[in-house]
Amino acid sequence: MENPEEKTLLLATLVFPVCGSNVLLATKMRKIGAGHLNGWGGGKEPQDLSLEACASREFEEETGGATVEQGDLEKVGIAHFVNHKSDGTTFECVVHVYITSVWSGEIISTDEMKYPAWYDQRSIPFERLMLGDKEWLPRVLSGEKGIVRAEFGPHQQSLVGEVRFEPVDSFEEE
Q1: CA 72, CA 88: separation in Å to the nearest integer?
Q2: Rg of the Cα atoms in the chain
Q3: How far apart are CA 162 and CA 111, in angstroms?
Q4: CA–CA gap between residue 81 and residue 148 (Å, rounded)
Q5: Which of 28, 94, 98, 136 is most buried per CB count within 10 Å?
Q6: What's the CA gap between 80 and 85, in Å, rounded?
Q7: 32-57 average pLDDT score
């Protein structure tokens, strides 16, 4: 069985709920990013007709039933994460990053994401996020759109090189 920290994921989404200058984050409990604060998301499944459908489905699954309409998702980033595995292989996971200020229902702790809490965007505890997030997350939360590139060592425990952020005005249609 594959080590959960070394899951090979090629295409995923990530949703950050925002309210004014605050962002809701929770502690990821499993798989890539376990133990770190993050938004809600996961891998695109065959039944997902679009990336927005994936983001909406993952948000509902990981928040304990809160829902976000696809039209209420604003794409703010595309992150290209190159991952080195302990067996020497690498893979690139492309993560489409969204923010939303509109959702229905209460966001609660689940087996996947625990302890949701609001953080002022100016005082996010970056030491509790995945490595490299401090280089790009504040920019997309403040309204800047961009392409992120980062490379991680095995188990995402180290960065290989610097995190790069390329501002863009818009994203090409998938």
Answers
A1: 40
A2: 15
A3: 32
A4: 8
A5: 98
A6: 16
A7: 94
pTM of the model: 0.93
SS3 48: coil
Tokens coding 138 = 């504040």
Least confident segment among 11-20, 52-61, 74-83, 148-157: 148-157
Answer whether residue 9 shows pLDDT above 90. Answer: no
The band of 6, judged by pLDDT with boundaries at 50, 70 and 90, is low
The 3-state DSSP composition of the chain as helix, strand, coil percent (nearest 5) reads 20, 40, 40
Rounded distance, CA 61 to CA 108, Å?
A: 11
Can you tell me the distance from the alpha carbon of 27 to that of 23, in angstroms, rounded to the nearest whole number? 13
Kindly report the CATH class assigned to 9-167: alpha beta
- The residue type of 8 is T
As to burial, measured by CB atoms within 10 angstroms (0-12 exposed, 13-18 middle, 19+ buried), residue 9 is middle
Alpha-carbon span 122 to 54, nearest angstrom? 29
Using DSSP, how many helices (H) and how many strands (E) does the chain show? Answer: 2, 9
